[in-house]
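Schema walk-through. Below, the input block comes first and the output block second. Nothing else is stored per chain. Lengths vary across the set, and this one has 192 residues.
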Amino acid sequence: MAEWMIKRLIVQGREMESQIAARDRALFAGVDAQLEQHFMTPGQRLSPPGVGNVMLLMVCLTLGLAGVMGLVTDVAAAWSGKTSAAVLMGSGAIVAVWMTLILFQLVQGKNSGVVLLQYYLGMLGLCCLGAAAAWAAGMTGIATGALLLGGVVGGALFSNRAAFYLYVAYFRTRRRVFIKRRWQREDLRNTR
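--- output ---
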C-alpha cells in the first residue's frame, strides 16, 4: 500500500476529530437517535463491504502458511529421509505469528502492519521460487507450489483494499469513541 495513502488516511482521521471538536457542545447531548446515527451508519450495523476483502486476504495468507509448512516439511524429508514434527510445527508457528502481527497492526491503524504484509508477501514469493526449484528436483509436489502461488497472487490482489478498509474502520472507531466521550461529558454537565 502506498505511503501517501496511509498518510492521507491519518490526516483525514485527525481532521475528522477536529471537526467534531469544533461543533456545538450540546449537539450530541440527550439526542439518542442522532447519537446512534453518528455512532454507526446502516452499513456498519450490518456487514461493511470491506470485510470480504479482509477475509479473502486472510484466506490467501493462510494458503501461503500451508504452502510454507508443506515446502519445509518436504525439503526436510528429502534431505534427511524423515520428517520431524518440530520442523512442521516450527515453520507453521513462525508464519502464523507473523500473520497475526499483520492483522493486529493493521487493525490498530499502524503503518508497520503494511510493512509486515509486504515482507510476508515477499517471503511467499521467494518460497514460491524455492517450491519451483524443489519440484524440479523432485523433492516436493505441485500442490505446495500451487498453495504458495495462491497465497502470493491472492495476497497481492486483496492487500491494498483490505489495508485501506482496516485503516478506515480504525478511524471510524476512533471517531465514535471520541463522540461518545464528548456526549458523556455533555450529559454530566447537563445533570448538574
